[in-house]
């Protein structure tokens, strides 16, 4: 499937409840890839947006009580309409408050995908006590840990690290696309979580959509670094490369190993 062409044809509406740090960057990235973003965190409109969206992204970054309430409302409304929901459980286990909200979402909202770094995925699997934040990494991104989380929550898990792991518990793919400069800018993981939204919205096979989204984002980062001089110019170049990305480029540059 030509995912990017389909996204640009359909212009899927992606509702994001995300954090202040990521909001502008994620919105611009979604526009660049061809989607139509909405960024809101008030509980009073979360149910409406969740029901009308083509995908819903729940990002636990700068969590508040209102955001937590809004996420639960949006997720449940999306489920009722068959709208895919993506969860980014930032710093799960870091505080009692955010862990309780994440557990509420996991218990009551059917997720199309969970996107988190390897440390956060390990916390969800019970293999690590807590993740301090979006930069909390563990040495090895173990596919078996990601598979256990995928089976536990019946979802696609995208565990990011030096090599990204994408799995639905049965099928697993390893993606080596990307660039270390992504670690030197704020909200690069948050943008990836949002970018997954339009990919899963246009595909029945959420696993393949996740693989394609991760590879596409990594390729855009690689191409951006060919033009960038540092983190500031990298941000601008990344948005440009997302805008100019094509299915042909993804097929040419993807580094995917399916297991």
UniProtKB/TrEMBL annotation:
It catalyses: 5-(2-hydroxyethyl)-4-methylthiazole + ATP = 4-methyl-5-(2-phosphooxyethyl)-thiazole + ADP + H(+). Its EC number is 2.7.1.50. Pfam families: HK (PF02110). GO terms for molecular function: hydroxyethylthiazole kinase activity. Pathway: Cofactor biosynthesis; thiamine diphosphate biosynthesis; 4-methyl-5-(2-phosphoethyl)-thiazole from 5-(2-hydroxyethyl)-4-methylthiazole: step 1/1. Substrate binds at residues 39, 187. Keywords: ATP-binding, Kinase, Magnesium, Metal-binding, Nucleotide-binding, Thiamine biosynthesis, Transferase. InterPro entries: Hyethyz_kinase, Ribokinase-like. It comes from the Bacteria. ATP binds at residues 115, 160. Its cofactor is Mg(2+). It is an enzyme of class 2 (transferase). Catalyzes the phosphorylation of the hydroxyl group of 4-methyl-5-beta-hydroxyethylthiazole (THZ). Belongs to the Thz kinase family. This is Hydroxyethylthiazole kinase. It comes from Oceanobacillus longus.
